[in-house]
Amino acid sequence: MNFFSDIFKKIKKKIIQKNTIIKVLAPISGEIVDITTVPDSVFSDKIIGDGIAINPTGNFIVSPIDGKIGKIFDTNHAFSIISHNEIELFVHFGIDTINLKGKGFKRIFNLKESNIVKKGEIIIELDLDYLIKTAKSILTPVVISNIEDIKEIRKYSGKVIAGVDPVLKITK
């Protein structure tokens, strides 16, 4: 009996995962802009995936979904999160901000790869005034990097508050 029970649980899990709807919250407060306006072809040409960008007004980057940190750069300008539903998100503050070598960014709670995070949990604190003056662009792409696994993506528009307002609605 246990053998069949395990098989049915696995089948049920796959069926549920295939028609799952996930809302991705704003990782930073600001105004949503089209990903194609980001001044870096890696994002604007959707080379690493599709999504939106945010013209930020806030000083905190939060987790846009519940999940696990996949990668967090030593410079604290970008990180990836893998949701429990296997959505891979990449959040990248600004363009060429890796060249700032971490200046203007502070990681919260010493988060590292494989740490579990909840929606709205602060990941990075930033000095927006400094970054506006020094970064090539502060547009912040929020990209689904495993877009091939997604059935449908709805992109929101307008002003958003970090950890509160949705920016993407994904059907997997």
Structure, explained:
With 172 residues, the protein is an alpha+beta fold. The protein has one domain: Distorted Sandwich (Glucose Permease (Domain IIA)). Helices cover 16% and strands 38% of the residues. It contains three helices and 14 strands. The protein has helices at residues 2-18, 41-44, 128-134; strands spanning 21-25, 30-34, 50-56, 60-62, 67-72, 78-83, 88-92, 105-107, 116-117, 122-126, 140-144, 152-155, 158-160, 166-171. The strands form three sheets. An eight-stranded antiparallel beta sheet has the order 9-5-6-7-11-3-2-13, with no helix packed on it. Strands 1-14-12 form a three-stranded antiparallel beta sheet, with no helix packed on it. A three-stranded antiparallel beta sheet has the order 4-10-8, with no helix packed on it. A hairpin with a 4-residue loop joins strand 6 and strand 7 (88-92). It is globular. The chain starts with a helix and ends with a strand.
User: What would you call the structural class?
Assistant: alpha+beta
Indicate the radius of gyration in whole angstroms.
17 Å
Strand order of the largest sheet: 9-5-6-7-11-3-2-13
CATH fold-level name: Glucose Permease (Domain IIA)
What's the total number of strands? 14
Instruction: Specify the overall morphology.
Output: globular
Major sheet attributes = 8 strands, antiparallel
| Approximate strand percentage | 35-45%
Provide the CATH superfamily.
Glucose Permease (Domain IIA)
Could you state the order of secondary-structure elements as H and E? HEEHEEEEEEEEHEEEE
Helix content estimate: 10-25%
Distance between the termini: 31 Å
Architecture per CATH nomenclature, i.e. the level-2 architecture: Distorted Sandwich
